[in-house]
Write a structure and sequence with these properties.
Blueprint lengths: L3 H7 L5 E2 L2 H10 L3 E6 L8 H15 L3 E6 L3 H4 L13 H15 L12 E4 L1 H4 L4 H7 L6 H5 L2 H4 L8 H4 L1 H16 L1 E7 L3 H15 L4 E5 L12 E2 L2 E2 L9 H9 L6 H8 L4 H13 L5 H15 L1 H13 L11 H10 L3 E3 L7 H7 L6 H9 L3 E3 L2 E2 L17 E6 L3 E7 L1
Parallel strand pairs: 2-3, 2-5, 3-4, 5-6, 9-13
Antiparallel strand pairs: 1-6, 7-8, 10-11, 10-12, 12-13
Helix pairs in contact: 11-12, 13-16, 13-17, 14-16, 16-17, 19-20
Length: 419
């Protein structure tokens, strides 16, 4: 059986670690307790957080016990960013986001069984902590010169950094110490951008308790140009369907670059590496089929939103281009797909026609171009070719009495909502 560290390495999921041999020995000696943390700086987690959750799941599948920390206190402070000071959210907002994120993280690991995950909140051990005790018990272990040398701090010294953000590393390090004392936690995982905070926790455990702990960081997930993966033209790729529809989530993976799609399959999915190698060979041979992207999108949408939403997203992708029946799409999926395709709103009182829709959606540059597209047989309403440029978009011609799928040629598709 493959050791979990070897599997993580083969999937490209280890950017940094403390003593690898010592960590291997600890993992091999028996089940360990480990943790990964999430600060509630938004109402939902995103793709970057997802990688941490799936890494936690891989360790759990190897028999180890996860602690998933939601930062009710660290979320009030905010990890310093190189770009500048974070905006502090109200305590009420952070508390609400804690509950939402705690619910989210529990979906990606097993919370039952002998190594079931435990959700913890660092507000539990910081809310009643006095400033004097914090400075005496935690602050004394942090040399200021070492804190100043941290990249994110040194980059902010000229523009300015508040004592609040400067002290964030103490709070996160204390989390590791508290979880070590309360739960026997000996490993923290996280993204490589958290490496300084994670190793500071390892050092605090050594200084405060004379004990040994471990750290492991995954690489930042990037696009081919080195920018962060998980950002689209419309914003962050969220895990909450209220912030990003399952269809839009599916499309974010469908659009993965050819040069990165196999890497994402290794890092984000639970497919066996042999199967991924087979997909990679097919992808090299016939990249135009985008079979690797479709498999990636299906696997990831199933992990995050379930099989039913994946099936609906796949059907929507086919239906918009005439390869499946539009009438089979649930209205929320149809609406999400059309909004993702750039759908616009038209007023029923204006008696819009197919030409109006082609122009409004940008599929035609002008009314004359729209009429020409209809005359040449290249305009479609709900996948039916239109021959009359004055065809009115009345309720009986709309899907759910509201939506119209507008297509020009084989590949250009958008939609309108009429109300």
């Amino acid at each position: 059986m493959t050791h979990v560290l070897d599997d993580l390495e083969a999937r490209g999921l280890i950017a940094h670690s403390t003593d690898r041999d010592a960590l291997r020995a600890e993992l091999s000696a028996g089940p360990i307790t480990y943790y990964v943390g999430f600060d509630p700086t938004a109402p939902s987690l995103h793709i970057g957080n997802l990688l941490q959750l799936l890494t936690a799941r891989r360790l759990q599948m190897a028999g180890h016990r996860p602690l998933l920390l939601v930062g009710g206190s660290t979320g009030l402070i905010g990890d310093p960013k190189e770009a500048g000071e974070r905006v502090m959210n109200t305590k009420e907002t952070v508390a609400e986001w804690v509950d939402r994120i705690a619910s989210q993280v529990s979906r990606f690991v097993d919370v039952d069984g002998p190594n079931g995950a435990t959700i913890v909140n660092n507000l539990d051990w910081t809310a009643g902590l006095s400033t004097i005790d914090f400075l005496r018990d935690i602050g004394k272990h942090f040399p200021v010169n070492r804190m100043l040398a941290r990249d994110v701090v040194s980059s902010r010294l000229e523009s300015g950094i508040s004592y609040t953000e400067f002290s964030y590393v103490l709070l996160q390090s204390m989390d590791f110490l508290e979880l070590h004392r309360r739960h026997g936690c000996v490993l923290q995982t996280g993204g490589s951008d958290q490496w300084g905070n994670i190793t500071a926790g390892v050092e605090l455990i050594r200084r405060a308790d004379g004990a040994k702990a471990h750290a492991l960081a995954t690489p930042l997930i990037t696009k081919a140009d080195g920018t962060k993966f998980g950002k689209t033209e419309s914003g962050t790729v969220w895990l909450d369907p209220a912030l990003m529809s399952p269809y839009a989530f599916y499309q974010s993976w469908i659009q993965a670059e050819d040069s990165k799609v196999i890497e994402y399959l290794r890092q984000f999915t639970f497919l066996e590496l042999d199967e991924i190698a087979h997909i990679a060979a097919e992808h090299v041979e016939k990249p135009g089929l985008r079979a690797a992207q479709r498999r990636l999108a299906a696997e990831m949408t199933t992990i995050v939103h379930g099989e039913a939403e994946t099936a609906a997203a796949e059907l929507a992708s086919q239906a918009l281009f005439g390869r499946a029946e539009l009438q089979d799409l649930p209205e929320p999926t149809l609406a999400a797909a059309l909004r993702e395709a750039g759908a616009v709103d038209l007023a029923a009182a204006d008696d819009p026609t197919i030409v109006d829709a082609l122009v409004a959606t940008g599929l035609a540059d002008s009314r004359s171009a729209a009429r020409r597209a209809v005359g040449e047989g290249g305009a479609y309403l709900n996948n039916e070719r239109v021959t009359d440029p004055d065809l009115p978009l009345t309720a009986d011609r709309l899907l759910y009495n509201t939506w119209a799928v507008i297509r020009k040629g084989k590949r250009s598709v958008s939609g309108v909502s009429i109300g």
